[in-house]
Amino acid sequence: MERSRTQPPTSASRAVPLALAACAALAALGTPAAAQRADDERSAEEIFSFMKRRMDKNFDGLISESEWTRSARAFRRADVDRDGVISLSDVEASRAKRRGDARRRGTPAPEPKPATPPAELDAETVEFFESNVRPVLATHCYSCHSESASRIKGGLRVDSLEHLLKGGLGGPALVPGDPEASSLIEVVRYEDPMFAMPPKEKLPDDAIRDLERWVRMGAPWPAEAESPATEGEVVDTASGSEAYGTIDLAEGRQFWSFQPIETQNVPEVERDEWALGDVDRFLLAGMEEAGVAPAKDADDETWLRRVTFDLTGLPPRPSEVADFLEDRSDERYEHVVDRLLASSAYAERFGRHWLDVARYAESSGKASNVVYPHAWRYRDWVIDAFGDDMPFDQFVMKQIAGDLLPADSEEERASNQIATGYLAVGPKSHQARDPRQFRLDLVDEQVDAISQGMLGLTLSCARCHDHKFDPIPTEDYYAFAGILMSTETLYGTQRAAGNNHASGLIDVSGAASLPAGPNMDEATRRFFGRALDRVRPSEPAMDEMNPEEMTPEEMRRKRQQERRRQQQGGLIESLLSRFDDRGRATDANRVAMGVREAEAIDLAVLDRGEIDRPRGVALRGVPQVLEPEPFDIVSGSGRLELAQWIASGDNPLTARVWVNRVWHHMFGVGLVATPDNFGQGGKRPTHPELLDHLAASFVQDGWSTKALVRELALSRAYRLSSKASSRARRADPENATYARMRERRLEAEAVRDAMLVVSGTLEAERPVGSPTNALEGRLQREEVTRYMTRERPVRSVYMPALRGYVTDAMEAFDAPDAAFVTGAREATTSATQALYMMNDSDVLRLSDAFAERLLELDVKEAQRIEAAFVIAFGREPEGGEARAVRSFLKDYERSYEGARPEAEGDKKERRRRNRRRGRLLDPTNEPGVHANGRRAAWSAFAQSLFQSAEFRAIS
Amino acid sequence: MIDGSDMNRRPRPSRRDALRVASSGFGLLALAGMARGARAPLALQDSRGPHLQPRAKRVIFLCMSGAPSHVDTFDHKPELVARNGATLSGVRRGAKLLASPFEFKPRGKSGLMISELFPKLGAHADDMCLLRGMHTDVPVHAQATTMMHTGSFQFVRPSMGAWTLYGLGSENRDLPGFVTINPPTGGGGAQNYGSAFLPATHQGLRIGLARSGRNQRGANAPVDDIANPRQGKELQRKQLDLVKKLNEERAKRSADADEIEAVIESYELAFRMQSELPELLDLSREKKETLEMYGVGQGETDRFGRQCLIARHLAEAGVRFIEVGIGGWDHHRNLREELTQSCRSIDQPIAALLKDLKDRRLLEETLVIWGGEFGRTPYAQGTDGRDHNHLGFTTWMAGGGVKGGLSYGGTDENGIEAVSGRMSIHDWHATILHLMGVDHERLTYPYAGRDFRLTDVHGEVATDILS
Q: Would you say the pTM of this structure is higher than 0.80?
């Protein structure tokens, strides 16, 4: 490591005495019995950990002066029985609770921290240690502070470096290189008689000097000579392959993605006339080098369908196809692209792309799956940002530190605050008991989202150990996490069964232009009204029992029930309070998820990510491999500085990662094929110069995503046919040269939205808010079924996004569950998709609507068939298609008339099956019965277009 | 069967060529190869199996996501008990050994030492072959899970189920040849049952994705939209014929006929599945005793019991590769309690599965495999937990072609690293394929200019475990 990242808390020397004094003080508050027990080390340990849990904000295992003085709230929390004093019973109540938690705890565990191979030390150092240090420790300290001690005092062992660093109850005993900060030195100096060691007699002065010198040397501890397998120690015969090398930052910086973005010279190409722009020249240079010739241009219909889906996620409408075919001007391509970029559909399309990266969802996921009723404000903010072509640097800045940016109006302030919803919408374990663990996990999730999403860096891998592939020491993780630990995340939710972690929200009611939210419909209000009635009056059975006749178990149960009811009632009341008595959302609903500044702290580095294993403190900062200079925090958490650092043209990753994401969406695969990982574990860029060219000009031209999309959409490469000669295919089977276009399967949203457009049922307007807005508390299956899965003809991006409840359509076509940053989705082809397209009620209803639309046309049958192809595929029928359809329609109609639609027995069987599947069928969700054979045939034909391979693909 | 020398002389067909040859009736490629009794088209036969006498016709892979501790389950370490609490020297200096809190007992005639965590499964010791010398490349869940399924943690490669199906085809054309019940969601996701560059028809059908919500659908292993609410079979057939026609038209014009081929096949399969699959997933017609035997309806065994019973249905119906997944084995803390729970949820269902297969004379032709992505450290994490350990762990096999009552390989005396009978994931894959009658070196697929194998350039068959 180049710059010393960890440092002891500045108040370390005072921290120990203060903490122990506090223990004594606490003990004195209690009963005489407690005072007796204070002599007992185990009791002291308990009291201290009791205090730590409340006051140790940065997890370094110590309570600093500032933590002590800022602990008024901690006092109130510690005073479990609220009697104004902390007594032994409070400590015991807390302990009992914690034991219960430990039993129930099932949080995901950290990965192992590899053992660090022993440093090679020179003979002189070894000699010094073996003759001047170890004997002192062994003679004067081991009897109480080593493995061989009958009882290890204060939890401290001094018989290995690891233990000294880990320290005991008073925190780390040693800070290599800094005797003044090492409590080991402090105690042997006998400066404070209360904390002097060894207890009986001060060490000789030269022994103290030797120890000081040794610490100043960096506390070198010879590896093998140190502890020959003594009794009780086992020789580990396994090889050392678990151990990973130490991190060399200077060498790490040589990795391609950590290098500064270089402005590139556009290469000379032989067939320059082929290129329409510099992107093409870079690609053509690669093709020429590989000896691959570019494919022909795609035909007009193919290009239009491709660009319309890529830019808007929707198919081109027949009129748009006609306009393009008729436009013979030189700017016919530009006309299309500019029209698409100006549409709200573009914003929804690229907004959805970002929401994948932002792991956006409206519930917490994990075991208790608590609803986030206000998450949609962030969703809308993202979509608007793309619509307004907000410069990407600002887009990033606002999501990390929008609350800290200056704003000219209440509107702007609210908008900036809503942007920080980015940090709040991640998955969380609300059922977790330990608030400290919850905080750490919350921050970890944020670190993961920011680092992968914005930087293409898997920083979270360094939570428990140094990163195994990238030059990121654990300290860097905690430096980064410290910034978020100094930030309060406001995700809303109330304390209730399954939710031990509530939080507030941001009031954005000052911004009058913001929608208050969706209205709550009458049925929903009645539903919750009834639910409230159910929980409000207590159940008589219990109430009527005489408390004196109840067993303790019954009492406990009763209390618990009562609490549950109250919580449930509270949830519903809080929900209803956001709406007036006519169901209209009120100002109380003008709230947003987001973050705000909290007390700034530097987080302890936690060994193996474990909460009780602090080793030193990491000054807040960013990964050193990217930033050799110390990270300068002017004030506060450092979040603003972090945002500025990420959103900077000098950051080697931000622009590269984003232009690569855009490239991925336009060409089907990124120049770096792993868009969320630009590290060692990721793929290398196929065209590093092109990537840098794009990133550099992106920054230079003001971070405009629309301009970037425009450039790519108008490139020659984007215009190419996906067909290529078999020679070209053999020469470049993977299409690494982009000599042809890639055929791609559409994303789940595009497939569904296309069905809505084609059937003529899409409501293109953005709906106000989200149905989730009318929920509160944990997601229950009944609610989910009732409110969420009900089909609404809005674009998929506006459908509720609940973790763990991806709808059938979305899931079949590989929509992610928002558990992680997802820069590249899967694109499978499966029988599940086929079943959905064949049998799903929604598909059937949309097929009916599409057929209806076709049958309403006042044209001949042949033209009707043509229209169907133009609407669905943006082209007229070719080859034998029309003929096949004509004969299908005839045949199907005849057979339909001949067969009874469905026997009553079948219907029953179907219902039975559906029930068994556990799917609550909404009767209104059932597709209707066809009026006649002609309608049935046209509906079946319409559906067959949905089912076709062409419908779900762009070529 | 084509002999290897012959194979080498013939130029490899490209995937496209192969498809063209195969699709004389377009859309029937995979069908032709997968139909009962039908032979694969000639052009593909050279690399497909069987190359050897198959010992097992199908695989049921019980996948324990999260990495179960070997020293508490199937790898008995008496030394660990003696050394409980001792600290290690060397690279893991300071790590404290943690004896298994669970007792091991000799089980069956073979006397295999199996932990008390498996009272019922232990009764099948004489059918089980413990592979105690397993090791893998990285101690990280995601990578190791992908490694276990595909043989690679860096690249997107076909899963072993897809390879098996590709090599042997399916025994039942009305069902997917590869079904994965409740697959692990993290760690590679769909890659773990994906077909990568193999024709997409070899991808596993996923049933009952494990959900993070409270209502995990895996419990009932449903398949959505398995029946059309208003269209009879005959009419639907007409409709799908039109779809097929449209797709064929498109394939003529398209650059990527493979993908269209896959879509066509997905509809054909879906159409056929509608008849058979609902019955296979329906447990309501099972006898009460059978349900009880699997632990269906009995709290903690209910979910895995259902999955195992469905797996037996699928095996009986001729599905080539069946994977049954269960998560929750990542016991960093609270080992005593949570490992006990985890084991309890699978002990009875697996014991029932083995017995049921045996009673139906299916076990001899079914390879049952149990294992997780790696093992856990014999030293403690905290006071009651174990960390990841990829250097040594245990999986086991039972049934088709493996010696029962055998313990093969082992870890060092602490249980950290595999020292004898070492078996890498590639060796494991090679052995599984071998048991299926497939030579892992001959089962190849030409892609991007070279022939790929499940085992890449590695893999040795553990001949010692073959019966």
A: no
